[in-house]
Amino acid sequence: MPGSNIPTSNLPDSDDNLSPSITVTNQHSLHVDVSRLKQIAFEIFVDHACFKTDISIAIVDDPTIHELNARYLQHDYETDVLSFLFERDIDAGYVSGEVIASADTASRLARELGGSYEDELLLYVIHGLLHLIGYDDKQEDDRQTMRLKEHHYMELAGATYQAPDDPDHPVGEA
């Protein structure tokens, strides 16, 4: 990943089948750096000793994320990112789930806030992946911890970090 400081040697040497499985699909017309998203997902899971994962990341448009938000969470509005945990056993190093991020929202917010579309989208994916690991942002203390993790991974990926605590930045509000 150009401009990134992400190390690639964090996996244990002993067992070749211990490797996070991460699939990214871009269902949107905007360009998505799939390798960047996969690499940061890899780093998040390795950092949390989750070497056995089955993760899907989908990049969609606003109408699609609106439909999914209404259907599965009964929220009749667009959002930036959804995460669906299928199974998690942190002690066994296993997480299975899906992160769905809106490229439309990322593009719109990046323009409004003066940031990069790809960095904004990366933030959504990181936020969703952290939820799959078990981080929460409902309580203030938990939200601060999650923001620090987001910041860490955004920096690791060489991204410009627009703090979600900024009142103009609604990441994870849905």
What's this model, at a glance?
The protein has a single domain (21-156), classed as 3-Layer(aba) Sandwich (Collagenase (Catalytic Domain)). Helix content is 41%, strand content 19%.
N-to-C series of helices and strands: EHEHEEHHH
Radius of gyration: 15 Å
In the CATH hierarchy, the third-tier topology is known as Collagenase (Catalytic Domain)
Average pLDDT = 85
Distance between the termini: 30 Å
Can you tell me about this structure?
By secondary structure, this protein is α/β, with parallel strands linked by helices. The chain has one domain (21-156): Collagenase (Catalytic Domain) (3-Layer(aba) Sandwich), CATH 3.40.390.30. Helices cover 41% and strands 19% of the residues. It has helices spanning 34-47, 62-73, 103-113, 117-133, 140-156; strands spanning 21-26, 52-60, 81-89, 94-102. Strands 1-2-4-3 form a 4-stranded mixed sheet. Helix 1 (34-47) runs parallel beside helix 4 (117-133) and helix 4 (117-133) crosses helix 5 (140-156). The longest helix is centred in the last third of the chain and has 17 residues, at 117-133. The chain is globular and about 40 Å long. The two termini are 30 Å apart. Residues 1-17 have low confidence and may be disordered.
Task: Describe the secondary structure blueprint for this structure.
Elements: E1 21-26, H1 34-47, E2 52-60, H2 62-73, E3 81-89, E4 94-102, H3 103-113, H4 117-133, H5 140-156
Parallel strand pairs: 1-2, 2-4
Antiparallel strand pairs: 3-4
Key phrases:
174 residues; Collagenase (Catalytic Domain); four-stranded mixed beta sheet; 5 helices; 4 strands; globular
